Amino acid sequence: MPSPAAIIRQLLHVILPVECETCSASLTDDPVPFFCRQCWSGIKPLAGPACPRCGRPFASAVTLAYSPGHLCRACRLRRPAYTSAWSLYPYEPPLQDAIRLFKYHGKVGLADALGDLMWAALRQPPDVDLVMPVPLHPSRLREREFNQSLLLADRLNRRLRLPLSHTNLVRLRRTEPQTELTRAERLKNLRKTFAVLRPSEVADKRVLLVDDVMTTGTTVNECAKALRKAGAADVYVGTLACTI
Hints:
Rossmann fold
């Protein structure tokens, strides 16, 4: 028997029809806002071998068969400051559509569903001491009114039950959106952008840094540099999705 919430949702969809953001099907009792059950259930975690350092999938299924510690070319050329990173899903529809609505259109009602996705794909929760989101600059936070990385970190941490620090790691200056820049420009854009206000909070700690999407990894790497400089023992990076 449908729950009272599901019945209310069905009635609302009758009065105010809503279409799935990915396939345009009319929504009825679908459990996730803005998406039909079929599209949402089609979101599958990344599978197969990945770089042990940055977590990017390898093209070949046998890449790590004989060399489990083999790093991708990018990590061999420039070792990241973080200990290791993993992205849980490919950045493609319908998840890409959901992140766009969540991040740029203020659909914070998707935070629970996206947090559930992160937890469902975590094969083994990381052994860490505290959780931190990638910060926004105060001016961008005022514009957006929320930090999507903090909402994801909060949903994930409700299961991990660890200290959640969201005011210590800060962004010192407003930068151009990374999606509009080349890799070289991204590095220059973010250099010395992040700082830790209270180093004693992270000294000798294992930190889990949470973000929504990993593209080149420049942002999380610059955050990791700041945390390492403040004395963090290890920095692990968890992102909901990555471009592949």
